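Page 47, continued from p. 46.
Same chain as before, 260 aa.
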Amino acid sequence: MSLEQFSTVLSSSTHNFANALPAELLLSSEGSLQTFYAPFDYVNTGARIVLCGITPGLQQASRALDEARKQLRHGASVDQARQAAKETASFAGAMRANLINMLDHVGVHRLLGVDSCARLFDTHRHLVHYTSALRYPVFLDGQNYSGSPAMLSRSSLRHQVETHLAEEIKTLGPLCLYVPLGPKVTEVFQHLQVKGLLKPEQLLDGLPHPSGANAERISYFLGGKPREKLSSKTNPAVLDAAKAKILAKLATLQKESVMN
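Result:
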């Protein structure tokens, strides 16, 4: 699937993507799961770090489709429309701010040579590739898919992981770092790691998912909320271990980059 295949349909469409995605963009159905096309095909092959969520939600998909449609109608090439759509829709809003704060907190910005990981969303976009374990948006009973049923347990979802995501990892090479957002995405990367597609040191896993629903975990991870004030929903030992592992990996990578 690619924007080339859908460019004619998209440029002539008057559909309001914010309400629901049209049948013309349906790629597959498996039980209550439906996968639709949205222009998330662009891969920044020069990226040094990859930020990976579960799958684009309806809001993200509609933004990408709106931007691609606008670009195509204004005479942009398919490649230009693809890149603009991907960058417009990637990790917007409060999720972006939480992600930046956590990446800066563990020192990813220093490894990348920028003053803050906020630059990954403006002046230094060339350093980052935004992607999802499931490249194309998936819906469960018409609602945003949030990781259940497990991605590797359904053939249509596993297919996305083992084709699109696997191809991206091969394209980006052995020096690229991966930040999986949440344990469900981490499971997918561990599966691909077992298959030999990436090395353990490339995987910076363990960050709390940057959604607003994870505010307490994020606050603790950032040192804002003290351990004794945490609710029973937050396991500080797990977060402490994850942070220690990330810091150790980054320290090793920083030493290697200085030596090189």
